[in-house]
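Q: Hi! New to this. If I give you a protein sequence and the SMILES for adenosine-5'-triphosphate, can you show me the bound structure?
A: Yes, paste them in.
Q: Okay, here:
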Amino acid sequence: MAKELIRLRDCTMVFDDDVVLNKINLSIKDNEFLTLLGPSGCGKTTTLRIIGGFVKPTSGDVFFNGVRINDVPPHKRTVNTVFQKYALFPHLDVYENIAFGLRINRHEGRRLSKDEIHSRVMEMLEIVSLKGFEHRDVTSLSGGQQQRVAIARALVNRPKVLLLDEPLGALDLRLRKDMQIELKRIQEATGITFVYVTHDQEEALSMSDTVVVMDGGVIQQIGTPEDIYNEPVNAFVADFIGESNIVDGIMIEDGVVEIFGKKFACLDAGFAPNEPVDVVIRPEDVDIVDIKDGMLTGTVTNVTFKGVHYDVIVDFKGFKWLIQTTDYCPVNSRIGIKIDPDGIHVMHKSQYSGMFGDYSSYSAEYEEISDAELGPEETVSEDKLYEA
Ligand SMILES: Nc1ncnc2c1ncn2[C@@H]1O[C@H](COP(=O)(O)OP(=O)(O)OP(=O)(O)O)[C@@H](O)[C@H]1O
Ligand SMILES: [Mg+2]
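A: Thanks. Here is the predicted structure of the protein with adenosine-5'-triphosphate bound:
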């Protein structure tokens, strides 16, 4: 793997007595596509601003190629930023928007010639697939095209690192998906390190080499998209990434976990004997079988057709699971379930235990929707709805 480019060591950020980043340690490699992922307010933008040099950490150090850069101002860092609200120059065409930084800045101590500027702008237009657009008015472009101009403008100075703060946030879903593929392609074509911020887990999983999951100013987990999805370290990560049933369990011994009083084979090991644990079971890893063959039996309380599969809510002793299956099972039917050992993931208890992974409220949402379809004589009063 490539060498380390950026390191944050014990970076803490305090605003008005609020600790918004708490001892962040992060290593970013050359050519890496790294994504900071987490809910609103968890400290993603603050981390990006520390890397860009727009704020200094209250304590801790920032290194670039092994050199401490805490006191280096943003314009002296070989870093460029693309924000969600990218401000293109409306009075300049596509070509001049991209050429702007090349014209005003010195590059390796000298001004670039007209020919050099031209070849760099044309190269960028090629990379962002906007060849032929050079003399278009930027205000006449679609949102996705404007975003690509903003990216070209940031890349044309050949930064070592591009910081992107929710750059696709303003685009509609379809365009977002296209631009995700486009951005990944641009990153691979240029070999520039991308540090990308999003709160969209699907976007993070589909684009990144490395995902950094944050909550409450603390890094919860760093890993490949597969690691984060398959081996979440705690209930927060399991819940934030995809859908998860998270239940209490007891790790009897290596390879055996007890859930609802039944023993299940699993692949996990290294826990204390009889350690209380959180157990993650992804909705797609549960097989619905005949009651007599079931490891557990439950009652179907809701079924929703999702196109590729059904979302089935099943009540096991008052705890509701989400199961995704292509087999139809009617509401109120009794079913059995089977889970293969590799469909079970065991985690240590954490501060997040008990907070996530129960689908009772999920089915309540559906119940509210079906309430809306009741006849007028059956309509629930508004007060009652609010109570629920
Ligand atoms: N300049 C500032 N002064 C005071 N508080 C700040 C400042 N900048 C950020 N904060 C606070 O720090 C916390 C983290 O903010 P940050 O912008 O890093 O979150 P984020 O993860 O980017 O969230 P979002 O997804 O909503 O953009 C928030 O509680 C925010 O209010
Ligand atoms: Mg932000």
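A: Residues 366-388 have pLDDT under 50 and may be disordered. Let me know if you'd like me to explain how to read the tokens.
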